[in-house]
Q: What sequence folds into this?
């Protein structure tokens, strides 16, 4: 399917690996030029080189997108933006009694306020031009809270509330804002979470992964490639009537009718 977005320009945050890279790769395959952000320049440059092989322009910007300075760098490098993919690493796991105010502030900065600030920066231009796409990578925990991810539950739920109202205010200008809610995918985040289970239960990584797969109806972890394909579709010319939605990509892990 021709997604109709060849020649558009996208910012992909935290795009050097994992789900962010999956989104960047799918957009590049659709002919979208990229401004790619990540904190570490080495992996970022390697990812950029890999994506350039797909025939698109890739501008890497190594910075911390959760800071005001980092966001300014990315936005300056991008100029006119047609597509924004917001993404940032999730907060560390723990229990309700482990977290203090500073822990919540860090989680809010990274997983709620940063995407909001990025949207505020690019939405006016998108609306003026009559076209734009924003995809926020959040978490299945928005639909079904995960106890040990309380920091993520809180911050991402806040972002979801913001998007619910904002998406409906900008849709009339040809701009869509939607959220993608990943379950467990075969990324570094999965390795980190499985590692926590290994330490807590004294089992192997293979056993920890098998435990998690057993409660996923699909029986496996998702892939960055299939996640990216959905992102690219939401950013396409064919998705203009999808507004303010929270799309689960969790292998059926959230047991809900709606």
A:
């Amino acid at each position: 399917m021709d997604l109709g977005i060849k020649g558009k320009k996208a910012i992909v945050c935290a795009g050097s690996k994992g789900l962010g890279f999956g989104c960047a790769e799918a957009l590049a395959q659709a002919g979208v030029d990229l401004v790619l952000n990540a904190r570490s320049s080495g992996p970022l440059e390697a990812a950029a080189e890999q994506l350039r092989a797909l025939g698109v322009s890739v501008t890497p910007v190594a910075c911390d997108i959760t800071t005001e300075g980092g966001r300014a760098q990315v936005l300056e490098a991008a100029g006119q933006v047609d597509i924004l993919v917001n993404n940032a690493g999730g907060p560390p796991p723990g229990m309700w009694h482990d977290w203090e105010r500073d822990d919540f502030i860090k989680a809010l900065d990274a997983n709620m306020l940063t995407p909001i600030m990025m949207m505020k920066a690019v939405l006016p231009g998108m609306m003026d031009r009559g076209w734009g796409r924003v995809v926020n990578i959040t978490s299945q925990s928005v639909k079904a809270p995960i106890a040990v991810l309380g920091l993520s539950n809180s911050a991402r739920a806040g972002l979801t509330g913001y998007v619910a109202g904002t998406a409906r205010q900008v849709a009339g200008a040809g701009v869509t804002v939607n959220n993608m809610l990943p379950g467990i995918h075969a990324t570094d985040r999965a390795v980190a979470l499985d590692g926590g289970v290994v330490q807590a239960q004294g089992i192997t990584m293979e056993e920890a992964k098998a435990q998690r797969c057993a409660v996923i109806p699909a029986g496996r972890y998702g892939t960055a490639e299939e996640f990216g394909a959905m992102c690219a579709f939401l950013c396409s010319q064919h998705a203009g009537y999808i507004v303010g939605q929270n799309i689960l990509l969790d292998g059926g892990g959230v047991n809900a009718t709606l």
Observations:
- The two ends are 28 Å apart (CA to CA).
- The chain has eight helices and seven strands.
